[in-house]
Write a structure and sequence with these properties.
single chain, alpha/beta, Serine Threonine Protein Phosphatase 5, Tetratricopeptide repeat, Nucleotidyltransferase, domain 5, Rossmann fold, six-stranded mixed beta sheet, five-stranded mixed beta sheet, 18 strands, elongated
């Protein structure tokens, strides 16, 4: 066979002559492939070389055969890159090994064979995961580089391939030296290549990949920035049709995502998504690169979901992951990564939907990722971490403890396999800490909690402040510290938890789906701070943030039940202070929702049942509906059944069950209920650390149970034990706690019972000190609280103050005679201090002249601040009965509370400054502060009234009434008691309403007043020389006509009623409109002829015109009322006992001027006469906090009011009013004018019954 000589790349080959034309053809079409990159051109080239190979004799043309097989192998590798057919790659490897074996040692092509063999082996590693292929590939690449002339243009591609394989080995082994070597190699390539080369984009891409990997391993941000720079350069240099363009896009997207994760820059995230979408679109569906690009797109979309919470992004991410998994060979080492990403997608979907099947799919995918990964792989910690976290969530859903143990085991392996300097270590430590914290909650093992907190602290230390993960880590640290507080009562831990949660919330985007969880945790912490400090700011803020968490959470989220439960707890806490039933009903509704949405196997179900039981028990205490209590007991028992015996939650469960059993005992008197209740309370105490913040309430409840046992059995030992429990509870409670007053009240009650056995006055004195301390604690809370809280405090304080007064009176009986007067003084001071506190505050902060000693600029500033404070309180008070706290916008409520607190702080500062300007200034400030009256204040009221006056203070106790009588010339009051238990009080009121209030004046005789008249007969010796009475009623006494009762007892005295002695100094000092403007309204609805005549006559006496009939519109009245000195209304009025602020005066067109509107008008007349039905009626809004039209006018600024206690007769009322004005205008004071007018009316035979002349009361300033 003749031979021909062909020179290829300066190397001479001997070839058979008959294949010369085939060789020329093969070389030609191979050269043309540089321009035609089509598959057809590739196939043609491959066919051409295959044809040559088939004609060659390997033994005669060994060197040339080596070249041909090398060429075929090269083309097969290209074919593999396009179609991903493993057969192509495997054949290429086989051919290349043959080429290397056959090639001459002087062949210039042998380096290329080694290079291509390395590529083939690396490709096979990608399919099989066989690490030995990758190791051999690196050796062959190094051989190729060593055999290549440094000046050869081929050196670049061979270095590049070496760099790629080194980077792959790093990905498998985690050896940073491989990655450092890869970066060095890729840098060398980029520096050596001609800047205009078409291959520059590919080499820049590979450099960027290595730099990005280095950043991921070390957290070196500079490397990430260089990676982004490399990718951007690659994109700028890429031809739009270049096969490298999708590679550049894909790699740039990866680095942009990494930079977003570090900096939080949303533009980087959007850029990453767009570049990955382009990369996927430009990648053939059969390309082996398509799965990885789909995964990268999915990662970006999932991160966008994390930012925005848009489910569409997450669904698209999962779709991309699933496509990638389907397109990937089962043996590919990339498969583990793809399964891991798919698991993360389903994990996120579970958090959104709450569907357990999504979580199970996630765990299945995570387990597949772990199975496909070698233990030494740097990816293994990440996969184990995700598996551990998923199993933790599955435990929370099912309550299966094996899932929790499996989770912690996976998380521990994660940490063990990770270098401490790895940027992933904080995340892994955080998850392990969370798992240990969850296990602590189940087992109560303190080591788990301590380890959890230490891990979370370490996490914070290891994390850059700007890291996007910092909010998560802060949140987890806060959760651990909360448990530490729950266990030990460590307030410092609680404050640090609050600080961590606040930072976590602050650093979390408003759109982030993680925000609700962090808000809820902050809310829980704020509740605990409220419980510890008593600060209502914390309570309101907790409601605001948890309500926001609920509003931001999809209904399908598995976290929503927890948020419902937490919101319920906040509202129940507020209910305990305000006794607003709506708060409690909403709380119960929240608990029911939480239970309905919770899997019956979830460990959280026990918590929600426990909370529901507590809510229902509170409702029972309000409604008395035994069904609520029975349901509560079922819930508490079920909660205990579902709680593991070692759980730190168990004491709370026992405590609440005990309380419910004690409530049922009070209803049924079944001894076993009380016995079991005490047993449960003892178990709660025994299982609780002494330092736990829950210990005081457990001790208090145990004390209550023992106290009930004492009442049941008379066993004094039980009473002593109850006293010991209450004292321990108090010793363990901070003075600022909202519960301290309750514990003190309970202790005081038990000490009173002890006194009944011992007759030892020391027990009585200790009880007084205890009640007094409880009152002081409530005063601290009262001063800066919103009105709704003040009303709730008044209900609690009313009970405490009644106990206090009763104890002081008893001390007056048993003390030495020379001390008796001091105890009576204390009793009167305490009694008056308990009355109309809110009204006293508002009246004391009305417009009044300030002492001249105080500089004008300070007075003006104080006046402005006080006006705003009063306005805020008026707005809230007028809203009572319309919008409950639970219905009000929490942000608005918190804002008002915050502003109120700010005003209060500024005023306190100003008031302290004002007190420096002398005694008058100090007295003025004391008035402004709304302080309880001192004995000196009360005595000065009697002194100002004069020696012909007496101050009478009525106080109601459950078994009697007490009337304090104070004369100016006396050093102390006298106290007259009359036995009148609650049952007889109700009978008396019923008689009164039947005979007078709802009567028509036709009764032959009134019997309702005969009992009460006796008390005036008792005190009449002390009223010698008295012509005028200043009377302060209490409780049911606000409803009765005391001047009439006194007349029936033979005391015909002028009489003024005031809500409390504490309000009187401010009423007497307040400014009023000293103009000549008067408004007289008569018969607006045209059905009261005598009222119309009354209005005209009064107007005549006052020298003005009356507004009669349809002219008396609400608009006219509201416009004129703030400007007048005297306001007289002769019309109908309406009293609403269920919503006293809805009571009002009827005007033209049946419009109603309500008490709410009166308060908001800010009218300041000297005298308001409400010549209408029931305008003096009031009802309690909490304790002795009475409300009706008269209180509304007083709060608005009126100085004196003339109001009625029942539905009056039109004609007799007109007569009485005309005479009142006659006497007043002739010089009598208002009280005396009313007395004379009443006497003149009763002189007329047809009006001699009380119904006609006794309805009107003068309230406020009598002068």
């Amino acid at each position: 066979m003749e031979k021909a000589i062909f020179t290829i790349q300066n190397y001479r080959f001997e070839v058979p002559n008959e294949i010369s034309s085939d060789l020329i053809h093969a070389l030609t079409i191979t050269e043309n492939r540089k321009k035609d990159r089509s598959v057809q051109a590739l196939n043609s080239s491959l066919e051409a070389w295959e044809k040559i190979s088939s004609k060659l004799n390997i033994n005669k043309y060994t060197d040339f055969y080596s070249y041909v097989t090398g060429k075929i192998a090269e083309l097969l590798l290209h074919h593999y890159q396009i179609f991903g057919d493993k057969k192509d790659n495997n054949r290429a490897i086989k051919l290349l090994k043959k080429s290397i074996k056959l090639a001459s040692s002087t062949s210039p092509f042998i380096a290329g064979y080694w290079n291509n063999l390395g590529i083939g082996l690396r490709n096979r590693y990608y399919h099989t995961g066989n690490f030995s292929d990758l190791k051999v590939a690196i050796r062959t690449h190094k051989k190729a580089v060593d055999l290549t002339d440094p000046e050869s243009p081929c050196i670049l591609s061979r270095l590049n391939n070496l760099g790629i394989s080194l980077r792959d080995r790093f990905s498998h082994s985690g050896d940073l030296h491989d990655l450092e070597e890869a970066i060095e190699v890729h840098n060398k390539v980029v520096n050596l290549i001609d800047k205009s080369s078409s291959k520059m984009p590919a080499y820049l891409n590979n450099l960027g990949l290595a730099l990005n990997e280095f950043y991921l391993r070390t957290g070196d941000f500079k490397k990430l920035e260089k990676a982004v720079e490399s990718y951007n350069r690659a994109l700028l240099l890429s031809d739009p049709d270049s096969s490298y363009l999708p590679i550049s896009l894909n790699n740039l997207g990866i680095s942009l995502l990494n930079r977003y994760l570090l900096t939080g820059n949303k533009n980087d995230l959007e850029g990453a998504i767009n570049t990955h979408k382009k990369a996927v679109d430009l990648t053939d569906i059969k390309s082996p690169e398509r799965p990885s690009r789909l995964i990268n797109l999915g990662n970006c979309l999932r991160n966008k979901y994390h930012l925005t919470g848009n489910l569409h992004d997450l669904e698209n991410a999962i779709d991309a992951y699933e496509k990638a998994v389907r397109l990937t060979d089962k043996k590919s080492p990339s498969n583990s990564t793809y399964f891991n990403n798919l698991g993360s997608g389903f994990n996120d979907l579970y958090f959104y939907t709450g569907n357990s099947s999504d979580l199970e799919k996630a765990i299945e995918a995570y387990k597949k990722a772990v199975e496909l990964t070698s233990l030494g792989s740097p990816s293994m910690p990440s996969y184990l971490n995700n598996l551990g976290a998923g199993l933790n969530f599955l435990y929370s859903l099912t309550g299966n403890l094996s899932y929790l143990e499996e989770s912690i085991e996976a998380l521990k392996k994660t940490v063990d396999l990770t270098d401490m300097d790895s940027p992933s270590m904080p995340d892994y430590l955080s998850n392990l800490g969370t798992g240990l914290r969850v296990r602590y909650k189940v087992t109560g093992d303190l080591k788990d909690l301590e380890s959890s907190i230490e891990y979370q602290k370490k996490v914070i230390d290891l994390t850059e402040p700007e890291s996007s993960n910092m909010p998560l880590y802060l949140n987890n640290l806060g959760s651990g510290l909360i448990y530490c507080y729950d266990l030990k009562g460590n307030l410092d831990a609680l404050k640090k938890a609050a600080e961590a949660f606040k930072k976590a919330v602050h650093l979390t985007s408003e759109e982030s789906p993680d925000l609700p969880h962090r808000l809820s945790n902050l809310g829980i912490c704020l509740i605990d701070l409220y419980s510890n400090t008593g600060s209502l700011d914390y309570l309101e803020a907790s409601i605001e943030v948890i309500r926001k968490a609920v509003d931001l959470t999809p209904f399908t989220s598995p976290f929503l039940p927890g948020y419902f439960g937490n919101l319920g707890n906040c509202l129940k806490n507020r209910y305990s202070l305000t006794e607003d039933l709506h708060d409690l009903e909403v709380a119960i509704q929240m608990y029911r929702k939480a239970i309905d949405l919770t899997n019956e196997k979830s460990p959280e179900l026990a918590n929600y049942l426990n909370n529901l039981g507590s809510g229902l028990r509170n409702k029972y205490s309000q409604t008395g509906d035994i069904h609520d209590l029975e349901e509560a007991l079922v819930a508490h028992n079920k909660s205990i059944e579902l709680t593991t015996s070692g759980s730190p939650e168990m004491p709370s469960r026992f405590n609440n069950l005990g309380t419910a059993l004690k409530d049922r005992y009070a209803y049924t008197r079944e001894p076993n209920d009380l016995k079991e209740a005490i047993e449960k309370h003892k178990m709660a105490v025994e299982l609780t650390d002494t330092e736990s913040p829950n210990m005081p309430i457990y001790l208090n409840n145990l004390g209550s149970g023992l106290n009930s046992l004492y009442f049941s059995t008379g066993d004094v030992a039980s009473l002593e034990d109850s006293i010991e429990s209450f004292k321990k509870a108090i010793d363990l409670t901070t003075p600022e706690s909202s519960n301290i007053a309750l514990y003190l009240d309970n202790l005081g009650n038990s000490l009173i019972h002890k006194y009944s056995h011992t007759s030892n006055s020391h027990d009585l004195e200790e009880a007084f000190e205890t009640y007094d301390r409880a009152r002081c604690c409530l005063d601290l809370l009262f001063s800066s609280a919103l009105v709704s809280y003040k009303l709730g405090f008044r209900k609690t304080s009313g009970r405490i103050e009644e106990n206090l007064v009763k104890t002081v009176i008893q001390l007056g009986y048993v003390c030495p005679k020379n001390q008796r007067s001091q105890w009576i003084i204390e009793a009167m001071v305490s009694a008056e201090g308990s009355k109309s506190r809110i009204l006293t505050d508002q009246v004391s902060r009305g417009d009044m002249p300030s002492p001249s000693s105080i500089p004008l600029n300070i007075c003006e500033e104080e006046t402005q601040l006080v006006r705003e404070l009063v306005l805020l309180d008026t707005i809230e008070l007028s809203g009572q009965g319309i919008v409950s706290p639970a219905e009000e916008n929490p942000t608005v409520r918190v804002s008002r509370m915050s502003r109120r607190k700010e005003l209060h702080q500024k005023l306190n500062s100003l008031w302290c400054e004002m007190e420096r300007f002398g005694d008058d200034a100090s007295d003025f400030v004391a008035l402004r502060r709304g302080k309880r009256l001192s004995w000196e204040n009360i005595h000065s009221i009697a002194k100002e009234a004069g020696n012909d006056s007496a101050v009478l203070s009525l106080f109601n106790l459950d078994d009697r009434i007490v009337l304090f009588v104070l004369r100016y010339e006396k050093d102390s009051p006298i106290a007259v008691e009359m036995t009148l238990d609650n049952e007889n009080k109700e009978k008396l009121l019923k008689q009164y309403f039947q005979e007078i209030h709802n009567g028509t004046g036709q009764q032959e005789m009134e019997s309702w007043n005969s009992l009460l008249a006796k008390i005036f007969k008792f005190i009449s010796p002390y009223l010698d020389g008295v012509h005028h009475i200043i009377f302060s009623p209490h409780n049911f006494g606000h409803l009765l006509p005391w001047p009439v009762i006194a007349k029936c007892a033979g005391l015909n005295l002028s009489w003024v009623t005031i809500p409390s002695l504490g309000s009187l100094p401010a009423i007497l000092k307040r400014s009023y409109n000293n103009s000549n403007h008067v408004i007289i309204v008569g018969n607006p609805v045209r059905d009261l002829d005598h009222s119309e005549e009354e209005a005209k006559r009064v107007a005549s006496k006052l020298g003005t015109q009356s507004i009669i009939g349809t002219r008396a519109t609400k608009e006219i009245v509201k416009e004129l009322l703030p400007e007048v000195r005297i306001a007289h209304f002769a019309t109908h009025a309406y009293f609403n006992r269920y919503d006293p602020l809805d009571s009002g005066i009827v005007l033209a067109n049946n419009a109603m001027l309500t008490a709410r509107e009166v308060m908001e008008l800010g009218a300041r007349p000297e005298l308001v006469v409400l010549s209408a039905c029931e305008t003096g009626m009031s009802t309690s809004m909490g304790g002795d906090e009475m409300m009706g039209l008269s209180q509304a006018f007083l709060q608005a600024g009126a100085r004196s009011l003339l109001v009625s206690l029942w539905k009056v007769d039109d004609e007799s009322t007109a007569f009485l009013m005309e005479n009142f004005y006659d006497f007043w205008l002739k010089g009598d004071n208002k009280a005396e004018a009313l007395r004379k007018a009443m006497d003149k009316t009763r002189e007329i035979e047809k009006w001699k019954d009380i119904y006609y002349w006794g309805a009107f009361n003068l309230v406020g300033d009598w002068r």
